[in-house]
Amino acid sequence: MKNLLEGAVKDVYDELRSRGSPPGEATFCGCPQCEEDVLAFALNHLRPRYAGGTREGVAVTSVDLQRDQTRAELMVAVLDAMRRVANNPRHPAGDTKRRGAAG
Ligand SMILES: [Zn+2]
Predict the structure, then answer these.
(1) What is the pLDDT of residues 49-102, one digit of tens each?
(2) CA angle (41, 16, 21) in 5-degree steps
């Protein structure tokens, strides 16, 4: 079973990252750890959409992820996650490049 949102959230994240930080927002770090935190946070706050429709008829195809409403929902969740991680990263500020992505 696969949560279809994992790929969709990553797409939205990449899109938002390519736009740069919105005015007035904290600069988002963007290191692998922060990226992972953002994706995890967003996924935890979104209703999962599993392929296969095993529970209560939750049969959602990838088409659902193309809907404007779904995209907007993902955008909000990812932006909120980025804001939280930017304001409270799990690593000391400026200490991101050397550690790399061990994981
Ligand atoms: Zn970082």
Answers:
(1) 776 655 554 455 566 777 888 889 999 999 999 999 988 888 886 655 555 544
(2) 95
Q: How far is the CA of 67 from the centre of ligand 1 (A)?
A: 31
The pair of three-digit structure tokens given for residue 59, joined into one six-digit string: 């049969």
pTM of the model: 0.74
Using CB atoms within 10 Å of the CB of residue 88, give its burial: 0 to 12 exposed, 13 to 18 middle, 19+ buried.
Answer: exposed
The neighbour count for residue 87, using CB atoms within 10 Å, is: 10
Cα-to-centroid distance, 76 and ligand 1 (Å): 20
Structure tokens at 44: 């935890």
**CA dist., res. 61 & res. 27, Å (int):** 34
Q: By three-state DSSP, how is residue 3 classified?
A: strand
Token couple for 62: 């990838």
Q: Ligand 1 centre from 13 Cα, in Å? A: 14
